[in-house]
Amino acid sequence: MKGIRVKTVRFGIIGCGLMGREFASAAARWPHLADIDVRPEIIAVCDTNKSLTEWFHKNFGSVKQVTTDYQELLANPKVESVYIAVPHNLHQEFYCAALDAGKDLMGEKPFGIDKAACDAILACIEKHPERFVRCSSEFPFAPALQRIGEMIEKKVFGTILEVNSGFLHSSDMNPDKPINWKRMIELNGEYGVMGDLGLHACHMFLRAGWYPKNVRAILSNVVKNRPDGKGGRAPCKTWDNATLFCEAQQPDLPDMFPMTIKTQRIAPGQKNTWYFEVLGTKVSARFSTKNINSLEVMEYAGGEQAWERIDMGHETTFKSITGGIFEFGFSDAILQMWAAFVYEREHRSLPKKFGGCIRADEVAFTHKLFTAALESNKKRSTVALDS
Prior knowledge:
By secondary structure, the chain is α/β, with parallel strands linked by helices. Helix content is 31%, strand content 26%. It folds into two domains: 7-135, NAD(P)-binding Rossmann-like Domain (Rossmann fold, 3-Layer(aba) Sandwich), CATH 3.40.50; 142-326 and 360-384, Dihydrodipicolinate Reductase, domain 2 (2-Layer Sandwich), CATH 3.30.360.10.
């Protein structure tokens, strides 16, 4: 980055689990980005589990504050921005406290355990319009998804026939896996798997402006109890799998099209699969993280139909030192997401429409959708979404 003046944003991390470590690793890889003019520096960490904070203190000399009290971290005047990754029941309290303390915020989905909590967070954001707030969702930063985003902007698909999106994994396939907070309704919330994975499945179509107008949801609680770690079994009251059938609409166009949204913790044959598919009258495109470097496209102008597979390589929104011919991976998606956060925080603009993190208003729509899905499943009927 010779000749570029680089601004440092000082971060605190509240919640030092898996995704907190991924952010720290991305910050350590920052020189991998070729010409970005802003970078994160992690100076404070907080978790009630001291063994987790020790990893940060051991590996990052920039960390000067280690605490078990998140209020102490928020009181640190040197911390400019925070990443908060805590159970859903704590989102409202922690996110609002961060904003009230004058910190910018990258929060984890779903921005509140339920719609009421999300509404309270949104009210706090409105109270602090000077604060920069975004939500974590890394998968759409894969080059193939960025290409699909460009195709959406250019309106190459013709009439949209169908959109399918989902996030499927098998972390709960084993019925004897001990219960964790994501299977506890008081911590994870009534949304269940939708609150945990749903924002990822909604990211692309929300940024495209393809908002569902109604939903018919089928929710499944497959494993109803799990080992409690004390020799007994505890009830699992959250939804393992969710399939949402929707009608959606493109901005300023009258015709509706079908959309399916799937989120599953118990998905045979899946490891951690995120997928997105757009079927149109002129062009269709599909992507899956099972083949993260491949984009499949079919153009139709009469005659035979044939899918073309394009090897994307390392064609990223934020340029890196990696040659374009080399492959892209999950840690690269994390790095791109954090580049998008600090870049937009600094410049209040993005290199491209689909090259940014999820906004609070987009997250708010997912709460409207998932709340309607709960009602739909209960009534076994289609529920309309208010515009």
